[in-house]
Amino acid sequence: FACPCCRWLDYYGKELQKSEDLKTNACITSARPLPKAVRDALKRVHEEVVARYYGCGLVIPECLESCRILDLGSGSGRDCYLLSQLVGEQGHVTGIDMTEGQVEVAKKHIAYHMDKFGYQKTNVEFLQGYMEKLGDAGLADESYDIVISNCVINLSPDKRAVLREAYRVLKPGGEMYFSDIYASQHLSETIRKHRVLWGECLAGALCWRDLYSIAAEVGFSPPCLVTSSPITIGDRELEGIVGDCRFVSATFRLFKIPGSSWAGPGQVIYNGGIVGHERELVFDANFTFKEGEVVDVDAEMAAILRSSRFSEKFLIRAGGANTAAQQGCCCTGVKVGSRQLHGWIQRWGHRYPLPSELSWDLGGATA
């Protein structure tokens, strides 16, 4: 099993016949209640597409109308067909996957879905290729508003390349919204080469500290944690192999913030109107915006809202939060060392909460 994805597909194809066969809850993620629009859209996706899908939960950000979205590791296309309804006929969704069979299933049902949605023109496409080499698939610089990924980055042998490519294809102000598995420490070779742990999406998990350092190195804003839940291992043999390492399933959002958007902290008012979030927008684990309510935000969040697709949904003015602890982060886009990163996480931990299951070892963070 030289290829991580082949190990995973072999495990799923030969050993798992039903969800009860899983030895962990990594692929049975808990999530917030889905908006009605999302639930209704999911019902219109072809049953074969849903049956062949191996992702975890749903990765559906907000404010999607007319957006261009790229799905990394799109599989049979479930998330793409769901999102194609939410972006509307004027939007566009591209799915890319390395597995020929999955791409074929996704492509087979394009006409069915466009007819089901009442679209006169196709707003989805599926490509076979690698998420580490999006240029080889013809994906141009600054061509997407949003990049999503549903529990597949852990299968990549070069996660830095995945984030670098996502950053490249995103427009200024664009967002990477993705779920994946993270570990509390760097994994041993025994874990990394274990066939079942690969199949359960644990052996390729990124150490959470590395997510923060890679995001900074690539140029993204610091990761905003959206949701997280601990992964339990219901197998004594696997528990013995894993030892004291802990795993968590988490959804993060990263933004490509233009330098011109940095203007210090501010006050924002959510205007409402985002479909499914008309009265309240739960942006991440730290910020919830209620319609008409004035909220003080730090420089980081002010820059995100000012530069992204959310800008038209908010009134944003300078001022508000102005303490030293709320000035945002000045290191976006700058390469940082382990000592700098550790100090930065300690300083901004209140703003960028880590999954509680992993933050126990913060005091010993090293590169």
Automatic annotation (TrEMBL):
- EC numbers on record: 2.1.1.137
Q: Does the keyword Transferase apply?
A: yes
Chain ranges of the Methyltransferase domain: 66-218
Q: May I have one GO cellular component term?
A: cytosol
Q: Which InterPro entries match?
A: Arsenite_MeTrfase-like, Methyltranfer_dom, SAM-dependent_MTases_sf
Annotated keywords: S-adenosyl-L-methionine, Transferase
Q: Which reaction does it catalyse?
A: arsenic triglutathione + 2 [thioredoxin]-dithiol + 2 S-adenosyl-L-methionine + H2O = dimethylarsinous acid + 2 [thioredoxin]-disulfide + 3 glutathione + 2 S-adenosyl-L-homocysteine + 2 H(+); arsenic triglutathione + 3 [thioredoxin]-dithiol + 3 S-adenosyl-L-methionine = trimethylarsine + 3 [thioredoxin]-disulfide + 3 glutathione + 3 S-adenosyl-L-homocysteine + 3 H(+); arsenic triglutathione + [thioredoxin]-dithiol + S-adenosyl-L-methionine + 2 H2O = methylarsonous acid + [thioredoxin]-disulfide + 3 glutathione + S-adenosyl-L-homocysteine + H(+)
Q: Name one GO biological process term.
A: toxin metabolic process
Q: Which domain of life is it from?
A: Eukaryota
Q: Which SUPFAM superfamilies match?
A: S-adenosyl-L-methionine-dependent methyltransferases
The UniProt family comment states: Belongs to the methyltransferase superfamily. Arsenite methyltransferase family.
> What is the name attached to this protein's record?
Arsenite methyltransferase
Species of provenance = Athene cunicularia (Burrowing owl)
